[in-house]
Amino acid sequence: MVGFKTFDDLDANGKTVLVRVDLNVPMADGKISDFTRIERIVPTLQELRTKGAKIVLLSHFGRPKGQPVPEMSLRPIAASLAQYLSCPVEFVHDCVGADAEKKVQDFPDGSVILLENVRYYAGEEANDVAFAEELAKVGEIYVNDAFSCSHRAHASTEAIAHIMPAYAGRNLEAELTALSSALENPLRPVMAIVGGAKISTKLDLLFNLIEKVDCLVIGGGMANTFLNAKGINVGASLCEHDLANTANEILSKAEKIGCEILLPSFAVLAKEFRAGAANRTASVEDVKSDEMILDVAPESVALLEERLKTIKTLIWNGPLGAFEIDPFGDGTVAVAKAAEALTRNGTLISVAGGGDTVSALAKAGVTGGFTYISTAGGAFLEWMEGKDLPGVLALNSDAT
Ligand code: 3PG
Ligand code: MG
By CB atoms within 10 Å of each CB, which of 94, 120, 160, 293 scores lowest? Predict the structure, then answer.
């Protein structure tokens, strides 16, 4: 695991601490639809308050591309934050500039202040040092508690950590600890379940995983590309026919390294991609030209459940079927429940992450039973790909 400083021994009393958080929360009809990212930053903020710090929150929301977009203001999030922290959260209309600095200065120690969206400035995504220096003027110490933004080399996640004393927050620490225990130094055997529509977006991930895990389960649309590469007719299924060679390369490399790859052998088939479409279960060898594979079938789920009983660590990214339309999420839900039960029995360490994955697990009602669920989307994927995360690396070198 990369090294970083936690704020265990930090004397934050009377100090203004800039905390980068990820308040890029999912919204539906103008309301926050999932509070997990807010819940996860509470320990860091409470701890800093107890230490007597003045807390200034930095975050982005959406992708306003360097200019103020009123719909992407962080202002509406302050009230929810206040509820979770049981204290007022003051909103400041800008994240840099003399006026914002003065407003922050005028609040008493112990205040929690939320600054406006850092992506209102182009300097943020450009990782511009001058912009990071402007941000740094607002506080004295920097804490990154936004693991889910750490794959971005942006001013508030990367450049700023080089110009201020920089620490990891508790949420970032928990994410890294959980993820490292699943891939870097795991209890074996390790299984990875990777699903989702396309392999083209997950090639780096697949190549990295076959070197790290003992068993790789491929599901979702991606599996069709592999089945097709093996000469199986997948009918009208989503399939990247042009990636057959790459899929075969992954299969043969995995075999050489000794990573077992499991593809579905039974599938749920339908002629239409819509909720409630008429469907049937069959062997993947028996897909008609007008049929699509939309989920793993109970026979394959049962095999996977058996295999899971022999596994000590599971890392999961991506649904196994078209989980967003009923009933094609059933396979994912069943496997998630099996993983949850084994975790509760204490025989499995289960770690999951990625946007769709977390929604799928929430739909299965198992999020409470997994060992760890990452709040990260892109950062989780890049970490699974074995890439360095610039926001985490930057915490290694501080300017004190
Ligand atoms: C996320 O939601 O994954 C993070 O907040 C990063 O957002 P981004 O993909 O817009 O950089
Ligand atoms: Mg994203």
Answer: 94
66, 97, 110, 378: which is the annotated catalytic residue?
Answer: 378
> Would you say the CB of residue 149 lies under 6 angstroms from ligand 1?
yes
Site of tokens 């060679």: 245
What pLDDT sits at residue 397?
59
pLDDT band at 2; cut points 50, 70, 90: low
Query: At 20, which amino acid appears?
Result: R
CA atoms in the 13 A half-sphere facing the CB of 397: 9
- Which residues have CB atoms below 5 A from the ion given as ligand 2? 377-378
Q: Is the CB of 377 under 6 A from ligand 1?
A: yes
Residue labelled with tokens 């839900």: 333
Distance CA 110, CA 361 (A): 37
* Token couple for 201: 């977006």
Which range among 4-8, 201-205, 258-262, 354-358 shows the weakest confidence by mean pLDDT?
354-358
3-state secondary structure the chain: CCCCCECCCCCCCCCEEEEECCCCCCEECCEECCCHHHHHHHHHHHHHHHCCCEEEEECCCCCCCCCCCHHHCCCCHHHHHHHHHCCCEEEECCCCCHHHHHHHHHCCCCCEEEECCHHHCHHHHCCCHHHHHHHHCCCCEEEECCHHHCCCCCHHHHHHHHHCCEEECHHHHHHHHHHHHHHCCCCCCEEEEECCCCCCCCHHHHHHHHHHCCEEEECHHHHHHHHHHCCCCCCCCCCCHHHHHHHHHHHHHHHHHCCEEECCCEEEEECCCCCCCCEEEEEHHHCCCCCEEEEECHHHHHHHHHHHCCCCEEEEECCCCCCCCCCCCHHHHHHHHHHHHHHHHCCCEEEECCHHHHHHHHHCCCCCCCCEECCCCHHHHHHHCCCCCHHHHHHHCCCC
